[in-house]
């Protein structure tokens, strides 16, 4: 018997022990499992699109010091999750762990937090990709007739939304027609990110005529938030941490793809923490290169405002020849295309698994598989909802950061619930082949405390006009992330009390119920 066959037998046996038959196509290697989380984290996406959040809320110190410090906190969360995916390698991932460790009600709420967060991931990544694609097309002077990227309105909000819709459709098509193709693209994406970051760093070293000092990069503080300087350390600077917390997220994808991964108890577990570790190291190098190239902060801020450009792009425009700007933008845009594709994969598998356990209205539809054994309806559903939640961005650029906050709050709360339940379980928990040993006690405790803190921080207004009762209050400046996340959870909670608690009993064994899941 070959090693691959032994892996398949062990994987399918473990899946059967958890109550599921091998319906999805198990064709992913351990490297490809790591690749999907690494791709979703995508330092070519998050580091570029939310660089301005840290630049304006804290300045260089929020980037040079904030990134490695916050990355360490996230790595601890990832290590806690790796232990759980090793024990329970199922597409349900996070909510399945919660239901197993705490009961149906814990699984119910965890699943909905996770689903909301994954919708936010798809929406925010593909919208950012559309923004960068629009800017890149405008730099190339592309005129499509119905949209002219060559004129001053090339990156108008309406045009960006059209590109956003096209990107969503593209990612849906790729995901529907081939899970194996997605796995191959993820493997390519890893090298695109590594070599792409290396190329961008070299460009930022040799391209600018001069660079900032070490003192500027590691000690300079900015407060362009509109809030008073007396609020810098306890309010403004923490808002800048959204750069790191948002960029390094979505690594639960390794769990959601575990039913499609060979040797999942080890491969998926390693995929979670390794994707965080390597993204943190490579991302810090990239961010330092960008910040060293930011030689004229006033000109950068003016360009970002006047031309409605992300701050990172404003740095490139002000400090690089036009040809090198184009090169950087193309590298980043392609990386974001890979990232969005993987986000759709992860989100659709979560919707499929949660529906498989009868937790989502219309579950019969979302569990349908096509001839490629891909949950095509779940793919379409996740993309459609991602488009709906992004509609406010048609008229309000601040809406993007609200979607980012939705992602962070939803996903990290989902991450930490089973981590808390594993902590509560204590030494009675029987770990899988990959585990944290006795260190789980302080690691899980820290993870719970950290997520509680960031959930409060990223629910706060980003600008003074978003503060209710402020003289300059503007409803369009409100951070609607907490309203959406917790509003939906309140509705889901009422749903649980009124109805769901009587029919949702946690994970449903499908080995005996395969006939209920119709193949398209």
Polypeptide structure, described:
The protein is mainly alpha-helical. It is 69% helix and 1% strand. Strands 1-2 form a two-stranded antiparallel sheet. Helix 3 packs across helix 18, helix 9 crosses helix 18 and helix 16 packs across helix 17. The two termini are 33 Å apart. The C terminus is likely disordered.
Number of helices: 23
H/E element sequence: HHHHEHHHHHHHEHHHHHHHHHHHH
Rounded radius of gyration (Å): 22 Å
- Structural class determined from secondary elements: mainly alpha
Fraction in helix: 55-70%
The counted number of beta strands is 2
Q: Numbering strands along the chain, what is their spatial order in the largest sheet? A: 1-2
Taking the alpha carbons of the first and last residues, their distance comes to 33 Å
Rounded mean pLDDT score: 86
Write the layout of secondary structure elements.
Layout: H1 3-17, H2 30-41, H3 43-49, H4 51-56, E1 57-58, H5 60-64, H6 66-87, H7 93-102, H8 104-140, H9 157-177, H10 179-206, H11 214-219, E2 222-223, H12 232-240, H13 242-247, H14 253-256, H15 264-292, H16 297-306, H17 311-319, H18 322-356, H19 363-366, H20 376-389, H21 399-425, H22 440-457, H23 481-503
Antiparallel strand pairs: 1-2
Keywords:
23 helices, mainly alpha, 520 residues
Briefly summarize what is shown.
The chain has 520 residues and is mainly alpha-helical. Helices cover 69% and strands 1% of the residues. The protein has a two-stranded antiparallel sheet with strand order 1-2.
